[in-house]
Each structure stands twice: as C-alpha cells, then as structure tokens.
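Worked example 2:
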Amino acid sequence: MKTMSCKELGGACDKEFRANSFEEIAEMSKEHGKEMFKINDEAHLEAMNKMQELMQKPEAMQEWFANKKKEFEALPAD
C-alpha cells in the first residue's frame, strides 16, 4: 500500500488515498472529485478547471499521468 494526497494528485485538500496501484489511487481521487463537485467545493472546482485545461492537450495529460505514476511508484510502502 502507498499513500498520496488529493493535493499531490492535483486536487485541493490533504485527504489521503491508500492503494496498491496508481490506477486504484487515481480512481479514488476521481470519486473524491465527484463528491467535491456535488457539494460545489470552490477550491476543488478550481483544481478541476486546471485539470480540464490539461485534458485539452492529450500529450500533456499523458505526460502528467505518467509523472504522477512515477511519483507513486517511487513512494515507500506504508
């Protein structure tokens, strides 16, 4: 198991996600983002807007994802 925070994943808070793979942690972060969207959390909405801009450039989004995956893989196990 490894841990990354919402902020480390491009979000706006210190909520931590624990998982065995980066794909799992990315899915947890995505679900958290949906929850924050539903309650109209301003800080998270701003972070989501930045991600939306990144998604407009597929190569930039792939690079971001690859870099976050490398960060995850470099973390020590909990």
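The longest strand covers residues 2-5. The CA atoms of residues 13 and 50 lie 15 Å apart.
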